[in-house]
Amino acid sequence: xxxxxxVDALNLKVYSGEAGLNKEVVGGYTSDLLxxxxxxxxxxxxxxxxxxxxxxxxxxxxxDISAVILVKGLxxxxxxxxxxNNEAIPVLGTNLQAFEISGQLYNLINKK
Length: 112
Prior knowledge:
By secondary structure, this protein is of the alpha/beta class. It is about 40% helix and about 20% strand.
């Protein structure tokens, strides 16, 4: 499954990083603590968070995250979008709460 497949299936907004929409996704990780993501998020996952600042992109790059989903209608800061474009890591958005989009992503990835 690609980031684009997830965008289409979950009706997500693409803010930036369009060059990375064909990246493969192996799972998801939900956390708002950068240190938690650095220590535990698997490479190739979609990171769900409410953090909008540029440090999100530093962690996403370090952990080889396939995409970031911002929740609750939050939008990325301008420098976050610029770094997203530089790294080809899509920053996506939803109006849903982290709990809701996490469940939807889990169900989508684990379809049997």
